[in-house]
Specification:
single chain, about 800 residues, about 35% helix, 5-stranded parallel sheet
Length: about 800
């Protein structure tokens, strides 16, 4: 007889066998008869709770015959992965206790919520956080009723689940989160269950390579458990269908040593899993001991487990004549129980009775003491481990005085600087100050040097466990920079895991390619949104992005590297989560970065340039300006003492440059025109205070932008975003210029021309909008059109911008 997966089947434990009939502990059977019995009963208890969560509204202990009214009106959830995860959890409990391990559990399969909720309930951590879900019959009813029920909890492992650092709604990031959690956590082991459907995603497939960055001396360990149950929603999984030899070669080719636990007979599988876990825990210990005490520097092959068990293990084998267990039909709800399937009530009751609850719980619904003893104690319980509630462990960063890194700006525009180069010197000191605590990481996909943050390598290295060649730079087994993997997914996942376990960090990336992690950002923002509503979840350090190599100057890269749309994506999220900053110069960037590194429970997005550009504000001025988030630049305006004729607004370093250049033309050619210059650093200031905590009141917005004057707004990103943020404001005369999806390999100024963001187009916009400029306005408009023709002819002939563009400076005599 074989299972649906084609593997040898052993007779299922019949439940009538007494502990005395079970094997005694030995090398091949490491569990004693008594311990085997208790582990199996604990597993059955977890399975019973899981089925109850899926189906039951009432009658949690089946003290009376089950009726349709005891079943939820709408049964939704996922069973297929759940019994396998319950099996893993109880066995991890044993090794945690026996080896005194510091371990957390990351559940990769998407909807294994019943398993993690049920197991944290059995170990007591769930009831400690949610006292109304008590460890008695009433608590069981509440546990069951709340699952996938209005006002209750979701069907996947969520922030509401104790012990979780991983949102199970979207697949692919579990292994990245696991590695992020163990960086700089030398005593921590993360057991990461990887679903075989999840293993088909790009991020997960790449994450196997994370061992090349794991230092066995200063980092903890990740124990992946690849759960091959054979199916996704309605299809087989790739890794479950390839030959054993091919699977083994794949795993070993990724640098792991696989250990296999395969079958469907509980007694046999318990013994196999126990022995295998003992082996891998010993191997992890040997690797760490060899590196930490004996100086072994060879990159290790870390152990992992391949668990092959039937989909929907221990569930209904056949429903309405169709096989369910071991097939894709067990993925979600294996048994429909509703008004159109009343005959399934008896089958559900039989299924639940197969776990023999009377051997698991007392009459009051409490787990029997001899089973409760199997769970670890106190903070060793995976649902209570503080690493899974990282705010408990969070300590403030030691930050340098950012003023010490300021550029000297004797007058607006008097000097040039490279903004991210200046930021790099500040981050160098952040890294240096926090080296003793090892609680800060800089991540990026091979772009730290390109984005001019390379000063950090004066005090640390790129962490790298691979082979090092003589001409390599900044590679070492230990370092606070993770940028040697060309994968935005891994950078995001590593940093999320690092933050969620109580540390700090910053992700630097090319602006156009941060889109690769759009969905990962979504999940983290959703996580933060939910955790803010959970008092027991302590705030964690903010997720900080620095987006450089931005749209407005790509040099040799061209159109493929031009996309500022991440900003549009970010502002979709809840207003109390997201913050967006576009500092116009280096001193403003320092002020913003220092602020962001001090914040908690936000996603902060900073867009900054790396090319030489005019510097506008002294450090003191920058601090004031960034604290306000938006303000009138009086030194660039000439409307003091009167109403402006036009408001020239700018947001972003390049738009600021072009607005000021346009203002200089207007001031020279139309000296009677009253121009007000408003610079925006904090993008969310544009929203109403009723929509975002940073938003300006209508009164303050009107005092800056007026209620009736034309606003010519030069924006770093897509123009529609500004209209979206300001659509409720009184002043409707808003005209935004920004990126319009035009570009190629060209000069920096020509990028602006192609998108109508340049000074010549901005001047024409003013002339077109402001009435009463007469002949002077007409002649100036013609002059601007002539300049655009000259520009095109010049770059076609010389391959660089006009001298008057390259050499332009703000005239301080205005």
């Amino acid at each position: 007889m074989t299972t649906a997966n084609g593997h040898p089947s052993v007779a299922v434990l019949d439940g009538e066998r007494s502990p005395a009939d079970m094997p005694t502990a030995s090398a091949s059977a490491p569990l004693s008869a008594q311990l085997l019995d208790r582990i199996d009963r604990y597993w059955r208890a977890a399975n019973y709770l899981s089925v109850g969560q899926l189906y039951l509204y009432d009658n949690p202990l089946l003290k009376r015959p089950l009726e349709l009214s005891d079943v939820k009106p709408l049964v939704v959830g996922h069973w297929g992965t759940t019994p396998g995860q319950n099996f893993i959890y109880v066995h991890l409990n044993r090794v945690i206790t026996e080896h005194e391990l510091d371990m957390i559990y990351v559940a990769g399969p998407g909807h294994g919520g019943p398993a993690l909720v049920g197991n944290t309930y059995l170990e007591g951590s769930y009831s400690e956080i949610y006292p109304n879900v008590s460890q008695d019959e009433l608590g069981l009813k509440r546990l069951f009723t709340q699952f996938s029920f209005p006002g209750g909890i979701s069907s996947h492992v969520a922030p509401t689940t104790p012990g979780s650092i991983h949102e199970g709604g979207e697949l692919g990031y579990s292994l990245s989160h696991a590695f992020g959690a163990v960086f700089d956590n030398p005593e921590l082991i993360v057991s990461c269950v990887v679903g075989d459907g999840e293993a088909e995603t790009g991020p997960l497939a790449t994450a196997w390579q994370s061992t090349k960055f794991l230092n066995p001396v200063s980092d903890g360990a990740v124990l992946p458990i690849l759960h091959l149950n054979g199916y996704k929603i309605s299809n087989p999984t790739v890794l479950a269908r390839i030959e054993r030899e091919e699977l083994d070669q794949f795993i070993r080719g990724c640098g792991w040593t696989p250990h296999y636990v395969e079958g469907d007979d509980p007694e046999t599988m318990h013994q196999l899993m126990a022995g295998t876990l003992d082996t891998v825990i010993e191997e992890i210990g040997e690797i760490q001991l060899s590196a930490r005490e004996h100086g072994e520097t060879t990159r290790p092959r870390w152990p992992m487990i391949v668990l092959r068990s039937p989909k929907g293990w221990t569930g209904p084998k056949v429903v309405d004549g169709v096989q369910v267990e071991g097939t894709f039909r067990a993925h979600q709800v294996p048994l429909l129980v509703d008004e159109t399937h009343p005959e399934h009530v008896a089958q559900l009751e039989s299924w639940m009775q197969s776990y023999r609850a009377q051997e698991l719980f007392d009459d009051d619904g409490r787990l029997l003491p001899e089973l409760a003893e199997l769970a670890p104690k106190g903070l060793r319980r995976m649902g209570a481990n503080p690493h899974a509630n990282g705010g408990l462990l969070l300590r403030d960063l030691r930050l340098p005085d950012f003023h010490a890194h300021a550029l000297a700006v004797p007058a607006p525009g008097a000097v040039e600087g490279q903004d991210t180069l200046v930021l790099g010197s500040y981050l160098r000191e952040v890294v240096a100050l926090n080296q003793p605590e090892r609680n800060f990481r800089l991540v990026g996909p091979d772009e730290t040097v390109s984005n001019l943050l390379g000063a950090v390598f004066e005090v640390t290295s790129r962490q790298w466990e691979g082979r090092v060649e003589p001409l390599d730079e900044f590679l070492a087994p230990a370092g606070q920079v993770l940028d040697s993997m060309l994968s935005e997914h891994q950078c995001q996942g590593w940093l999320e895991g690092y933050l969620l376990t109580g540390r700090h960090g910053l992700f630097n990336c090319y602006e156009a390619f941060i889109h690769i992690v759009d969905s990962m950002f979504n999940q983290h923002a959703k996580w933060l949104k939910v955790t803010k509503e959970l008092p027991w979840r302590r705030p964690i350090a903010s997720l900080n992005y620095v987006l450089a190599s931005h749209v407005w100057q790509q040099d040799h890269n061209g159109f493929t590297h031009q996309d500022p749309g991440f900003l549009d994506h970010v502002v979709n999220k809840k207003a109390d989560i997201v913050r967006v900053y576009l500092p116009p110069d280096a001193n403003c960037l320092l002020s913003v970065a220092n602020h962001c590194l001090n914040t908690r429970n936000y996603v902060n997005v900073i867009v900054a340039g790396k090319h030489p550009a005019p510097q506008w504000l002294t450090m003191d001025e920058a601090v004031v300006h960034c604290t306000q988030g938006v303000g009138i630049w009086s030194w660039a305006s000439n409307d003091q003492g009167s109403e402006p004729d036009v408001v020239m607004a700018c947001c972003g370093d390049t738009p600021t440059l072009e607005v000021l250049a346009a203002v200089s033309i207007l001031r020279d050619e139309l000296p009677d025109l009253k121009v007000r210059v408003v610079n925006v650093v904090d993008l969310m200031k544009l929203q109403s205070e009723s929509e975002h905590p940073h938003g300006l009141s209508d009164r303050d917005y009107d005092s800056l932008f007026t209620t009736d004057k034309h606003i010519i707004f030069a924006f770093h990103g897509y123009p529609s975003l500004i209209h979206r943020l300001t659509y409720r404001r009184h002043n409707r005369d808003l005209h935004v210029r920004g990126y319009n999806e035009e570009g190629t390999i060209t000069t920096a100024f020509d990028m602006r021309v192609q998108n109508d963001l340049d000074r010549f187009h901005l001047v024409q916009d003013v002339i077109d909008r402001v009435p009463g400029l007469g002949a002077a306005g007409s002649y100036l408009k013609q002059s601007m059109q002539d300049k655009l023709v000259q520009h095109n002819q010049y770059i076609d002939r010389h391959g660089q911008d006009l001298p008057e563009i390259r050499n332009w400076k703000w005239d301080q005599t205005r």
